[in-house]
Structures are given as structure tokens and as C-alpha cells.
Automatic annotation (TrEMBL):
Class of enzymatic activity (EC top level): oxidoreductase
Subcellular localization, as worded in the UniProt entry: Endomembrane system; Membrane
GO-annotated molecular function: oxidoreductase activity
Organism: Leptothoe kymatousa TAU-MAC 1615
Alphabetized UniProt keyword annotations: Membrane, Oxidoreductase, Transmembrane, Transmembrane helix
The keyword Oxidoreductase belongs to this UniProt entry's keyword annotation: yes
Protein name in the entry: NADH-quinone oxidoreductase subunit M
Entry function: NDH-1 shuttles electrons from NAD(P)H, via FMN and iron-sulfur (Fe-S) centers, to quinones in the respiratory chain. The immediate electron acceptor for the enzyme in this species is believed to be plastoquinone. Couples the redox reaction to proton translocation (for every two electrons transferred, four hydrogen ions are translocated across the cytoplasmic membrane), and thus conserves the redox energy in a proton gradient.
Principal localisation: membrane
Pfam families xref list: Proton_antipo_M
Transmembrane residue ranges: 71-92, 104-122, 128-146, 158-179, 199-216, 228-246, 266-287, 294-313, 325-342, 363-389, 401-423, 443-461
Family of this protein: Belongs to the complex I subunit 4 family.
Length: 508
């Protein structure tokens, strides 16, 4: 059942090679759409009362190395795979019709989606590592072949940083196996290890740095702006919307859950790291003149919220950080899609050359309106997907790390600052008479943004559709971490409605 989520995109990638180049995009859309529909069906069959992994699959592969083909899914994995399949379809649909070497391009996109799903589904550390590293090859080619200026530099930088990330994670995984005396790399076996506090803290160092590169966190973020800016719009959507989630997913799955005592020790430092990332990258976003680079730095800043919620380690903060991972992916996808449309229609991404796009006759009113909605969601405006996620992260983190949570709240204010700058410069003001009329945006170009708008508003108006999947995983995770307490969705509802007296306290 779960193997289909990995195999169907691969079959689609192979099928593309059997069709002419003119049909490559259509075949790719089917190759991405069928796994998306399958994932939606899995939502209907998922048992919310069961917080353990469901639909497990297992087959011996290389038992002598501790490597077996083991898959399973919980609420966290289900949401991440759903995000991956949705954004893969969005990315493929948003690709330009005149993309060069289309069969290779779309095949690599589907291969990327397949291995990312594999990483989210893997229940064996070594299998996870193989999928984690396999992302590197297709993404390197996608950046280096179809990227913009300085694409070779950006692709090489991405390759080096990702290789270092993988090496550090592998060190942590082998340390878990050898020092813990586990029989193999299966998640269940690693979870039964009983390491001393000193060893747990020591093993968390390579995990934190390795996954911190992928997130990325300051000062390990320097590969990201160059890579996101050089990548084409579909590839940027996959990089920021999905790939970055492997970093926070890995910290939750292998750091927080498998090394709970050590995590409790380093959590204050993780929270400080998150606060630094939020503020530093928010200020970097403010001073950017390239709107794509501004969105890239915004992405790093908002991933800091996820790390802050993970550091706090209670049910509410963990539910919030899982929801924030989804919200971040959706918002970043619509922002990159719209930035790509602006660049295609106007021919520039520079703030100094953009103005008046909200003009209903000669401008890009649809793009401007949806860009405004994306910016509002990123800033945490109520009624949009990011609000409830960020609220849960801050509310869950405040009682544990109050100063870091306050810094995060300041970060949301800075988000409003740089997006007001972006919107004021691009959407408002007088339209330049020298570029008086821009090409119209067709319905096919609007479709990806329209789909994302619907999802962003729907999950913002009804956040329980998102939180109900993350809560069982959060509760299961905190049961093994010292000093944590359960806060249910009912408590969160009381907090949102202002009735704090009936809510369960976050700490004793």
C-alpha cells in the first residue's frame, strides 16, 4: 500500500520516456496526480485513534548490514507525504510549456518526489538515509541544467552542503546502532536502545548539525539563497516546500524521539538557535532587492518556528510545529509560483523595477491579489493556514522558553515589515509607462495558485482539518520525553477563544 507512493512516481518517470516530448508534461501530471489521489484515500482510511505506525511493510534486503525494506506511516508522515504529492503536482503544472528537454525534466521531478516520499515512509534508518541522499542527484541536475544565472555554482554548493549533511547524519545513525547495541537500523530497534545521557547528547550533535543544514538554520543556511534563486520555479517549490521538511522531520524522528534525555538537555540551546534564525533571516529578508531572494530568506526565518516548537517539546508546540511544516510548504509554494509569474511577465525580480502591478487594466491584478494573500498568510493573519500553526507554536513554547517565544512573535512582526515593502513596491504605485502593458495571465498559469489559495483558506478557516492528524503523533512523541505534558486540541480551542482557565497548563 505504501510502496505505491514511492513506486507510482517512478513508473510515471519511466512512462514519460515512452511518449513524445510534447506529451511529457501530461504524462508527468498523471504520474504526480495518481499518488496524490492515493494519498487522499489514505487519509480516509487512517485510524486517528492509533498513534503508532500504520500499514507497515517489511521485507529483508541486506540484513547483514541491518538494512531492510521497512515502511510505515503515522500522522506526521501522512501529512508530509501529502504535502510532497500535492506540491509535486503543483510544481509540474506550473512548469513553463517551453521547458527544454521536457522528458528528462519531468522524469527528474517525479524521481525527486518518489525518493522524498520514501524518506518520509522509511522505518529503517539506513533506508531513510538512502532516500535522503538519493534526493541529491535529481535535484542537482534540475538546478544545474534548468536553473538561471550562477546555476552551476548554486548546484555545486547545494551538492557539497547536502553531502556534509548526509555524512553527519550517518555518523549519528551508526552511533545509535553501535553504542545502543541495536540489532539493526529499524526504528523499533533503535527506539529500544538505552544510552547514557552523555552519549545521547554527543549523538545529538551530528544529528542537529546534519539536519540543521537541510532545514537550514543559521549559520548553516548560506547554500539556500543561492540555490533557491538559481532554481527554476518548479524546482524552487520542491526545494523550499518539501525538501526542507526532511530536516525538521529528521530532528523530530531521530533526535527528539530516539534521544529524549539528551534532547531535554540541549533543548534550551535549540530554542536559542531557532530564535536567532528567525530574527537574523527576517532582517536579511528586509534588505533584499530581489523578491525571490527575499522569499528565500523568509523561508529560513519561518522554519525557525518549527525548530522552536520542537525544542519546547510539549503536545501543543509539537502539533503546532507539524502544522507549521505544512503551512510553510503551502505558503512558500504559492509565493515562488507568483514570483515566477512576475518574472515571466515583467522580465525582472528587482524591487526597483517593479511597481503598479495591481493595475486592473495594464498590470497583473490576479498575481498581485494572490501575492497579497500569500504574504498575509506568511505573516500569520487569522483565517489563513499559518495563523493557528504559529499560535500553537508560540503558546506551547512560551511557558517553556518565554524569551525565545517572544523573539519568534517579533519575527512575525518583521515578516509583515518585509512583505509590506514587497507589496508596496511591486503591487502599488504608478505603472511604468515604458512597460505599460504586460502579457495577460492565462487560466493555466493561474490554476496552481488557485488550488493553493483554496487549501490555504480552507485550512485557515478550519485548522482542525490539519491538527487532527498531528495531535496523535505529538502525544506519542512526548510520552518518552522528560518534563512534557499533554495539551489537547480542546485546550487549544479554549486558548484561541480566550478561555485560558479551562485549558490544561503546559507545565506543572
Amino acid at each position: 500500500m505504501l510502496t505505491l507512493l514511492i513506486g507510482l512516481p517512478l513508473l510515471g518517470a519511466l512512462a514519460i520516456l515512452l511518449f513524445p516530448a510534447t506529451k511529457a508534461k501530461l504524462v508527468a501530471l498523471w504520474g504526480a496526480g495518481i499518488p496524490l489521489l492515493w494519498n487522499i484515500w489514505l487519509f480516509s482510511q487512517f485510524d486517528l485513534g492509533n498513534s503508532s505506525f500504520q500499514w507497515g511493510e517489511s521485507a529483508a534486503w541486506l540484513p547483514v548490514l541491518g538494512l531492510n525494506y521497512e515502511l510505515g506511516i503515522d500522522g506526521l508522515g501522512l501529512l508530509m507525504v501529502a504535502l510532497n504529492t500535492l506540491l509535486t503536482w503543483i510544481a509540474i503544472y506550473s512548469a513553463r510549456p517551453d521547458v527544454e528537454r521536457p522528458r528528462l525534466f519531468y522524469s527528474l521531478m517525479l524521481m525527486t518526489s518518489s525518493v522524498i516520499s520514501g524518506a518520509f515512509l522509511a522505518q529503517n534508518f539506513l533506508l531513510f538515509f538512502l532516500f535522503y541522499e538519493a534526493c541529491l542527484i535529481p535535484l542537482y541536475l534540475l538546478i544545474n541544467i534548468w536553473g538561471g544565472e550562477r546555476r552551476s555554482y548554486a548546484a555545486t554548493k547545494f551538492l557539497i552542503y547536502t553531502a556534509i549533511s548526509g555524512a553527519l547524519i550517518l555518523v549519528g545513525g551508526f552511533g545509535l546502532l553501535w553504542l545502543g547495541g541495536a540489532e539493526d537500523f529499524s526504528y523499533a530497534a533503535l527506539a529500544e536502545t538505552n544510552l547514557s545521557l552523555q552519549w545521547q547528547v554527543l549523538l545529538l550533535v551530528p544529528f542537529a548539525i546534519g539536519f540543521g543544514i537541510k532545514v537550514p538554520m543559521v549559520p548553516l543556511h548560506t547554500w539556500l539563497p543561492d540555490t533557491y534563486v538559481a532554481a527554476s520555479t518548479p524546482v524552487a517549490i520542491m526545494l523550499g516546500g518539501v525538501l526542507a521538511k526532511l530536516g525538521t522531520y529528521g530532528l523530530l524522528r531521530f533526535g527528539f524521539s530516539l534521544l529524549p534525555d539528551g534532547w531535554a538537555v540541549i533543548a534550551p540551546w535549540i530554542a536559542i538557535w531557532a530564535a536567532m534564525t528567525i530574527i537574523y533571516c527576517a532582517f536579511l529578508a528586509i534588505v533584499q532587492r530581489d523578491i525571490k531572494r527575499m522569499v528565500a530568506y523568509s523561508s529560513v526565518s519561518h522554519m525557525g518556528y518549527v525548530l522552536l516548537g520542537t525544542a519546547a517539546g510539549n503536545d501543543l508546540s509539537l502539533s503546532g510545529c507539524i502544522a507549521q511544516m505544512v503551512a510553510h510548504g503551502l505558503v512558500l509554494a504559492i509565493l515562488f509560483n507568483l514570483v515566477g509569474l512576475i518574472e515571466a511577465k515583467v522580465g525582472s525580480r528587482e524591487l526597483d523595477q517593479l511597481n503598479g502591478l495591481m493595475n486592473p487594466v495594464r498590470g497583473l491584478p490576479f498575481v498581485s491579489a494572490t501575492l497579497l494573500l500569500g504574504a498575509m498568510s506568511s505573516a500569520g493573519i487569522p483565517g489563513l493556514v499559518s495563523f493557528a500553526a504559529e499560535f500553537a507554536v508560540f503558546q506551547g513554547s512560551y511557558r517553556v522558553f518565554p524569551w525565545q517565544a517572544l523573539v519568534g512573535i517579533v519575527g512575525t512582526g518583521l515578516t509583515a515589515v518585509y512583505f509590506v515593502i514587497l507589496l508596496n513596491r511591486t503591487c502599488f504605485g504608478r505603472l511604468d509607462n515604458q512597460r505599460a502593458y504586460f502579457p495577460k495571465v492565462s487560466f493555466n498559469e493561474k490554476a496552481p495558485a488557485l488550488v493553493l489559495v483554496i487549501v490555504i483558506i480552507a485550512l485557515g478557516v478550519q485548522p482542525n482539518w490539519l491538527f487532527r492528524w498531528s495531535e496523535p503523533t505529538a502525544i506519542q512523541a512526548i510520552e518518552i520525553v522528560p518534563g512534557t505534558q499533554t495539551v489537547t486540541l480542546e485546550d487549544m480551542g479554549d486558548l484561541l477563544l480566550g478561555d485560558a482557565s479551562s485549558a490544561t497548563p503546559l507545565l506543572d
